[in-house]
Design a protein that fits this description.
The structure holds two protein chains of two kinds. Chain A is mainly alpha-helical. Chain A is built from 15 helices and two strands. In chain A, helix 1 packs antiparallel against helix 2. In chain B, the strands form four sheets. Chain B has a six-stranded mixed sheet, sandwiched between helices. Classes of the chains: A mainly alpha, B alpha/beta. Bound molecules: iron/sulfur cluster (2 copies). One iron/sulfur cluster binds next to helix 13 and helix 14 of chain B.
């Protein structure tokens, strides 16, 4: 008989693979990509393709240079590429988008050891780098359905809201803009990043992720409820806050990134609450309209701390403490 | 304590939806004639190793004690065939330790000692303990814990529940399933006998719902107005989800009680016994013959005729393979036990011991596990762990030999059920890392 394979039990594997999981995330992002292309035209598609290509290439090359095994086909770089593209304004120069992709993969992900090792979300960090490098280009918003040469710039709903607030509070009394209706917000026919505007598309993706058991619902649910709750407390419009400013894409796709959120449910709750609270604090008191990116990245950094202090109770653990106490008592007797 | 029967099993966390592959569930078990030679290792249980009590050249009857130990936690070993002691050698067990083994050349008759007679009627627990010791009975479900130790609990009055384990949650394995169908009478008598002696008022016959025919049969046994007028014995249908048959999980789903970490079932008033063990108690009471035969499921992609075979203990796997028509294809992995917790063997030259309930033969395709890639922190291993442990953290702490951390993570609580490794999309060998980690703790981190 030839040599038998020796291995530790179990001798079976489940069906899920890293690659399938990533593919499911891509499928879940498909509605948002399609919505982006419908609203913002072919340039949206160009940006998505650019980011994905740049990410996969960076992954492939950086692994090669670092002499590590090739992970370009696990599709995680594709997910990063899509997420980054969906968080960019459609008018951005593709070269800048490619630059962002390289930052995401090389600096944020691979320099820390690749998949599972980075401590902040690559796509979000790259977006923050881009906002700070090219502030003007990164905040130029395009009116949906104004393709090509007829591109019309507009403001995001949150910008409109804050300009209204400014107008109301300033002594001279500026002009009030009419805010988009909930239905418009829900469908996504508004200015904003390619993939963040359509709540409908993002929720479809959410349902898919849940159905396929890719993510645990606790992060999006707690994140969004926290935002709604604080929004109410601050006397804002909760529904408006939920539907705008990239909250949904952040809560559903960014905050749930495996690598950069706590693994244990209790930790996830704290993490999501922190994201929600920071988002609202930034929106209410900060100068930036969209607090989501910063909120998530800050919470990403706090994950190790959360994981250190929030631990699950293991089976039979509480009782043992009691038993020991009882024993100690018996001993005293 | 509450002694009601739940309408549905209680909740248990985690677990894995493993494939069933109970290919042999509908096949009648077959008796295998005694092979030419059997090998009886001197440890077929958890506890002290026995010393051979026979010499080379001795004639032994089936059922004769050939290995014994003074230690309390141990169980005597009986010859399973009649014949001559051919040799006393050393054999390498699956854990790597070398122990003595008695080799018997069979005379093909399986003749029992003429003096063997049924034990005097068993009325007290002490007598039952003694009988199980004499019979060499250990937990036949896989653990191999000596039954007289299991039955001898400190505070008898606290035991209020007996659970008969027919869950059989491991893929492929159907030995208990067949036991329920084919040995119903002994199962029935065994259950009521143990119940009577333990004086418990509640008996669960716990069976996974993927065995409808066994459920019918066991329900008949449970609904016996004569022996059980107060309906204190009932079948509980468990979800078919691995690892329902693990002792702690079984107790949780039946009674909602949580065995404390490092504790025993008796700490929460329960005794769990495998169905084959109870049935054997009944046979022993009838004829006084010690444990010599064992039903094992033979299955897997590399074996020609999968089936349940009843073999003399000590039969070599290669002999069973021959009996089952040989190999279909070259086996690449041979496992003792189910695929989730079984041990891989280096050779098919190994004998069946008391607690084995299956031997599986995998071809090349089944034998190769997926390639291990980087952990993506997906937390699937956390979610899968029935004991709410943190397998990924075990792996990291074990790699870095962080003893404090390992302790802090309660690594010793892990039952090595394999759900975490099964669930991991990166194919990480978490259970292996856990074993290494436990070893670090045992040896204090020394290499
Ligand atoms: S092997 Fe241990 S850590 Fe892994 S799931 Fe089972 S009990 Fe939990
Ligand atoms: S299941 Fe595997 S990949 Fe997921 S966290 Fe656990 S070890 Fe990492």
């Amino acid at each position: 008989m030839e040599k038998l394979i020796m291995s530790s039990s179990p001798h079976l594997n489940g069906k899920k693979r890293t690659q399938n999981i990533m593919l499911d995330v891509i499928i879940a992002l498909a509605p948002a990509m399609i919505a982006g292309v419908i609203f913002f035209g072919i340039r949206a598609a160009v940006l998505i393709v650019t980011c994905v290509t740049a990410c996969v290439l960076s992954e492939f090359l950086s692994r090669k240079i670092m002499k590590r095994d090739n992970t370009a086909w696990d599709l995680s770089a594709v997910v990063t590429g899509v997420l980054l593209a969906l968080n960019l304004p459609v008018s951005l120069n593709p070269l800048m988008a490619a630059f962002g992709s390289v930052i995401a993969i090389v600096v944020v992900k691979q320099m820390f050891g690749g998949i599972g090792m980075n401590f902040v979300n690559p796509a979000l960090t790259a977006r923050i780098v881009l906002v700070n490098s090219f502030p003007a280009d990164m905040t130029k918003w395009t009116q949906p359905f104004s393709y090509g040469a007829d591109m019309v710039t507009t403001a995001t709903p949150l910008q409109m809201l804050s300009s209204n607030v400014d107008a109301l509070s300033s002594a001279s009394g500026g002009e009030l803009v009419e805010l988009p209706s909930y239905l418009t917000l829900f469908l996504g026919n508004i200015g904003g990043c390619i993939g963040e505007t359509s709540a409908l598309a993002l929720l479809l993706g959410f349902v898919y992720l849940l159905a396929r058991q890719i993510i645990h619902p606790v992060i999006p649910v707690v994140y969004i409820s926290t935002v709604a709750g604080l929004s109410f407390l601050f006397g804002r419009d909760p529904l408006f806050d939920i539907l705008t400013g990239g909250l949904l894409i952040g809560a559903i796709f960014m905050a749930t990134d495996y690598t950069t959120c706590p693994m244990f449910i209790g930790g996830k709750v704290i993490f999501a609450f922190g994201c929600g609270a920071l988002t609202m604090l930034i929106r209410q008191f900060g100068s930036m309209n969209e607090g989501v990116s910063y909120a998530i990245v800050i919470m990403n950094i706090l994950v190790p701390l959360i994981e250190r202090y929030v631990k699950p109770k293991t089976f039979g653990q509480k009782k043992i403490v009691k038993r020991k106490q009882n024993k100690a008592k018996e001993g005293v007797k | 304590m509450d002694l009601s029967f739940p309408r549905r099993p209680f909740h248990s966390k985690g677990g894995a939806n493993v494939p069933h592959r109970k290919n042999t569930a509908h096949m009648e078990s077959v008796f295998m004639p005694p092979p030419d030679k059997i090998i009886l290792p001197m440890q077929q249980h958890i506890g002290a190793i026995c010393t051979p009590t026979v010499k080379k050249g001795d004639y032994v009857y089936a059922g004769q004690v050939i290995g014994n130990s003074e230690a309390y936690v141990s169980a005597p070993i009986h010859a399973s065939v009649s014949g001559t002691v051919a040799d006393i050698t050393q054999i390498t067990m699956t854990g790597g330790q070398k122990i003595d083994a008695v080799v018997i050349e069979s005379d093909g008759k399986m003749e029992f000692e003429p003096s063997i007679q049924p034990p005097a009627e068993i009325k007290t627990k002490k007598e039952l303990d003694e009988a199980t010791w004499n019979a060499g009975l250990v937990g036949l479900g896989g653990a191999g814990f000596p039954s007289h130790v299991k039955l001898n609990v400190k505070d008898e009055s606290k035991i209020d529940t007996l659970i008969i384990n027919v869950a059989e949650c491991e893929p492929y394995v159907t030995a208990d399933h067949r036991e329920a169908l084919e040995n119903g009478e002994n199962v029935l008598l065994g259950i009521y006998k143990v119940k009577e002696i333990l004086g418990v008022k509640r008996v669960f016959i716990a069976v996974e719902e993927n065995k409808p025919d066994a459920i019918v049969k066991l329900t008949e046994i449970a609904d016996n107005p004569e022996l059980d007028p107060n309906d204190e014995v009932r079948v509980i249908k468990l979800k078919s989800r691995y690892p329902q048959g693990a002792e702690k999980i079984l107790i949780k789903v039946c009674t909602n009680r949580v065995v404390p970490e490092g504790g025993l079932p008796s700490d929460v008033g329960c005794i769990v016994m495998n169905i084959a063990s109870v049935a054997f108690i009944s046979t022993f009471i009838k004829n006084g013959k010690p444990l010599t035969l064992k039903r094992v499921s033979i299955d897997g992609s590399a074996i020609k005729n999968p089936q349940n075979v009843i073999v003399p203990i000590g039969t070599k796997i290669s002999d069973i393979v021959e009996f089952c028509g040989g190999y279909k294809t070259e086996p690449k992995k041979i496992m003792l036990g189910g695929p989730m917790m079984g041990t891989a063997l280096t050779t098919d030259d190994f004998p069946i011991i008391k607690q084995n309930n299956a031997v599986l033969f995998f071809d090349e395709k089944d034998a190769n596990l997926m390639k291990t890639t980087a952990c993506i922190r997906c937390a699937r291993c956390y979610m899968a762990c029935p004991l709410s442990l943190r397998p990924r953290d075990f792996e990291m702490a074990s790699d870095s030999k962080d003893l404090e951390k390992l302790k802090d993570l309660h690594i010793m609580n892990c039952m090595e059920c394999g759900c975490c490794s099964y669930a991991c999309p990166a194919g990480r060998k978490l259970v292996h890392a856990i074993r290494v980690g436990k070893n670090h703790l045992r040896t204090g981190g020394a290499k």
